[in-house]
Amino acid sequence: MAQSSEARERRGAHAADVEAQREIEVREPADEPRGGSAGAAEDGAGAAAIGGQGGPGEGGAESGEAPSAPLESLSLHDGPIPHAPLPPVAGPWRSYKEILATLAQRVLDAQRPIRILQALRWEADVEEQFLRSKQRELPQVAYSDDLGFDPEAKQRELEEILRDAERELGKRDRLGQILRATADEYRKVVSMLTGRGTKAFYALSRELYGSPKDKLPDGKTSVRDMGFVLYDLLTAIGGERLGPSQQREITAEMAALDLNARFDRFFGGASIRVQVDDSLLADAAAGSDYVKIRSGAMFAKSDVDILEAHEGWVHVATSLNGQAQPVARWLAKGPPRTTAVQEGLAVLVEILTFRSTPRRAKKLNDRILAVDKAEDGASFLDVFEWYRTEGYEEDECFQNARRVFRGGVLAGGAPFTKDACYCKGIVLNYAFMRAAIQHDRAMLIPFLFVGKVAHEDVPVLHAHVTDGIIRPPPYLPPIFDDMNGLAIWICYSSFFSRLGGTALAEHYGRMLER
């Protein structure tokens, strides 16, 4: 027994020495090349932005307090921190990669039964009841008590992962910080889902997904400010004068056949299924290796082009790129902290490939304003009527309002805030790409597609390519295969902004009015 006690003391002393060594941060020189470049190439149609939201917070059904896990503020030039795994208390020695991969798999296993949008679904008869009331009564919504898992047990499981990750990797390990931020967000998601239909749901939704009232990293402009500017710009565009209108004559089955052929060409050997689903609420949704199309939906060719870029090139591709990681396996799944990057990338790719339209952009921007109205007390009925005044069809008004109020309080004041992420993500992704190009770090841009990431993750992940922990993304949207075009687009975009385009546009505006 004495020998066993002495051995434990020696192991504890050694662990303390290793942790002390970790306090000395070693950085690679900023001008020294590190790491490779990218290879070739949930409500998907439907996270944290720069600065992150991955720290712990108050949970609903937690059985204990999880260790703190905020990511540190990262420079684009940050390199990896040397890591030396603590010796195991029992069993064989394990490498850092083994420890990280094991913890990553535990996170994947823990999140598997957590289905956020599934838990927030409304039954089909809710819309029927609403229509019978002639849109005068709030919908009657009931959520199933069965989430598909035991919330308290799931909280304990995730808290154990957080403790083990901190113990086995240390607090300062940057990949460990990302993993812990991911696990901690799933812990909060469980608490959020247990509070469906209450203000507690909204409080956690706002913490996880943000709010239209949040400021952008400049500390001045809020997401809602951006929404108001875009509202004025997009409302002034006469879509019928921009090109021929496209009729929605493509059935769901025809769209699925077309997309299957397109994805076969893009993904090559990967088996990606596009299938028609009669239980889908949105027109389309992407999974890890599939895209679902709502049965009965009708599409124009431009709609199918958007689905190819949004669902395929971004949502499915980042899932497959994450699945290709042998160590950082959590990158295959998207906790809320990655939502702004994911959805913003998907829409930005639509824009960069000239697939988006003013109507599409307005639809996404109106979501910001709808969430903002609901936060300020607008009820489901108020938001439904607002959409009607914006020219949406009655069915669209219901679907759009439902997105805002699913899981929240229909009387107002406590919505589901996820839909504020789309346009925020466009702006932040553009800013990230612009900074990367201006700071000669363009090699980081493809790593936005390495899996489901937040912006602060990208320099960390790229720094670990050379040690084999991270693999470059195999699937990239075509415009990112060669970034010369993107670089010149960003260069001239910045140039036009500095030139003072408003005054020039007003000059020509006066000329056109003569």
Automatic annotation (TrEMBL):
The keyword Protease appears for this protein: yes
Protein name per Swiss-Prot or TrEMBL: Flavohemoglobin expression-modulating QEGLA motif protein
Residue ranges, compositional bias (Low complexity): 39-48
Composition-biased stretches (Basic and acidic residues): 1-34
SMART domains per UniProt: DUF1704
One record GO biological process: regulation of nitric oxide metabolic process
Upper lineage: Bacteria, Pseudomonadati, Myxococcota, Polyangia, Polyangiales
Pfam families, sorted: MATCAP
UniProt region (Disordered), positions on chain: 1-89
